[in-house]
């Protein structure tokens, strides 16, 4: 057995070697740890580099798409710019065209206005010449005595208030639903073509049909020579001729058909005479409306006075053309021309309307019908069908009249067409 000291020394020696070995191991481990750390860092950097590469590729793809989109937008912008330039050129061209048209319209409007003024002056000259040479219209003072004065002299018991009321009643007229004062009621008359042919200014033509009714019961030379009916009918006949002539000169369509010979033929009954006077007054008012005559001067009962205002040289718009307004109040007042004659008929009981009141005859010009391409075949078929219907027996007289009138109209149409050919 060895000694304790040897064993202790050997232990110390082993411990020393152990410590040295541990130092060598620690040194070796430090190098490996550093290597592992470097490897880890390298791996991390590689992963980051890979991620960056992927990000760069992705961003490059995005940039490529954006570049392509930007290129498309630039191309579209260029197209829009070129289109905008074309539109701007078109706009400028249209503006130049509109300016030319505006200048042309302004020139044409001025020319039209000038022509209208020239036409109005010509119409005015012709109308003034017509009314000064052929149809002069003048106001004639009458020597009629006031009925109030006559009543005052015949009846001394009548008070002054009653006389004044009668005078006031004589100077009032029912107009537009109310009684209005009429200063020109019976003091004056209006003459046409001469001082011997006059009409009562108040529109009271009862002397005509009173004379007609009196003539039926009384016969004699005095009834033919000394009567107011001839004067009234002559004045109304001249007024009708003047109105129809003015409508042609002014190019105004009259609302009522009234031929020139209406008042100069046979003696008219009260109903027919009143209706003809209403038509004449309506036509005169229509002409006054078309020439913008002052409505305050017009009266639905004053036939020749309205005509006098119409053709007066003081009428500023005489000869004008264009649209105009119609006074409904004055037209509505036409029914009061002779309220007592409303609903009256001839002695036969049933009023017969003659052709003179409805058919203008030769007073209007007949114009040929226009030509159409497809008229011949249709007309021949209609003519054949109408001829077969006419050949058959007709039970009703009204049906026969309708068929014959249709056949006559088709025949006249066919004649007009063949005449054009």
Descriptors for this entry?
single chain; 421 residues; mainly alpha; 3-stranded antiparallel β-sheet; 12 helices; 5 strands; rod-shaped; phosphatidylinositol 3-kinase regulator activity
Q: How would you sum up this structure, described in words?
A:
- Residues 70-107 form a coiled coil.
- Keywords: Coiled coil.
- Residues 344-362 have a biased composition (Acidic residues).
- This protein has 421 residues and is mostly helical.
- It folds into 3 domains: 1-114; 135-363, no CATH class; 375-420.
- The protein has 12 helices and 5 strands.
- The protein has helices spanning 4-134, 147-154, 160-170, 206-217, 221-225, 228-250, 270-290, 303-310, 328-332, 355-358, 375-391, 397-420, and strands at 137-141, 172-175, 178-181, 188-192, 198-200.
- The radius of gyration is 55 Å and the shape is rod-shaped.
- The model is unreliable at 144-154, 174-185 and 337-403 (pLDDT under 50).
Alpha-beta classification: mainly alpha
Q: Mean pLDDT, as a whole number?
A: 75
Number of strands: 5
Oligomer: single chain
- How big a fraction of the residues is strand? under 5%
Indicate how many domains the architecture comprises. Answer: 3
Cα separation of the termini? 168 Å
What's the Cα radius of gyration? 55 Å
**Run of helices and strands:** HEHHEEEEHHHHHHHHH
Low-pLDDT sequence parts: 144-154, 174-185, 337-403
Strand count, sense and barrel status of the largest sheet are: 3 strands, antiparallel
Spatial order of the strands forming the largest sheet:
1-4-5
Q: Give the helix tally.
A: 12
Helix content: 55-70%
Task: Characterize the overall form.
Answer: rod-shaped
């Amino acid at each position: 057995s060895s000694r304790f000291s040897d064993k202790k020394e050997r232990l110390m020696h082993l411990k020393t070697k152990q410590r040295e070995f541990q130092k060598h191991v620690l040194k070796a481990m430090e190098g490996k740890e550093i290597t592992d750390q470097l490897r880890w860092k390298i791996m991390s950097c590689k992963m980051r580099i890979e991620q960056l590469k992927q990000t760069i590729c992705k961003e490059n793809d995005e940039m490529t798409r954006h570049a392509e989109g930007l290129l498309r937008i630039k191309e579209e912008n260029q197209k829009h710019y070129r289109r905008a330039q074309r539109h701007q050129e078109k706009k400028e061209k249209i503006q130049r065209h509109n300016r030319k048209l505006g200048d042309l319209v302004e020139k044409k409007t001025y020319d039209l206005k000038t022509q209208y003024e020239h036409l109005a002056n010509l119409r005015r000259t012709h109308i003034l010449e017509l009314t000064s040479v052929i149809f002069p219209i003048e106001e004639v003072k009458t020597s009629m005595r006031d009925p109030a004065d006559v009543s005052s002299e015949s009846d001394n018991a009548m008070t002054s208030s009653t006389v004044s009321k009668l005078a006031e009643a004589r100077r009032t007229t029912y107009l537009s639903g109310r009684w209005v004062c009429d200063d020109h009621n019976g003091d004056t008359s209006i003459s046409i073509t001469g001082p011997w042919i006059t009409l009562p200014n108040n529109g009271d033509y009862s002397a005509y049909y009173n004379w007609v009714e009196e003539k039926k019961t009384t016969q004699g030379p005095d009834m033919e020579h000394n009567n107011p009916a001839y004067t009234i009918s002559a004045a109304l006949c001249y007024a009708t001729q003047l109105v129809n002539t003015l409508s042609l000169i002014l190019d105004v369509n009259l609302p009522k058909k009234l031929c020139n010979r209406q008042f100069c033929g046979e003696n008219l009954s009260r109903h027919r005479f009143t209706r003809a006077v209403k038509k004449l007054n309506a036509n005169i008012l229509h002409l006054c409306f078309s020439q913008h005559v002052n409505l305050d001067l017009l009266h639905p009962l004053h036939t020749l006075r309205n005509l006098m205002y119409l053709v007066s040289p003081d009428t500023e718009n005489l000869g004008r053309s264009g649209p105009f307004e119609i006074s409904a109040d004055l037209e509505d007042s036409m029914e009061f021309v002779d309220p007592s004659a409303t609903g009256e008929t001839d002695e036969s009981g049933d009023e017969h309307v003659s052709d003179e009141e409805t058919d203008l005859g030769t007073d209007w010009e007949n114009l040929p019908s226009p030509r159409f391409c497809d008229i011949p075949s249709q007309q021949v078929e209609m003519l054949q069908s109408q001829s077969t219907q006419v050949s058959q027996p007709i039970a009703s007289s009204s049906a026969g009249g309708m068929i014959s009138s249709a056949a006559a109209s088709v025949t006249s149409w066919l004649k007009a067409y063949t005449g054009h050919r």
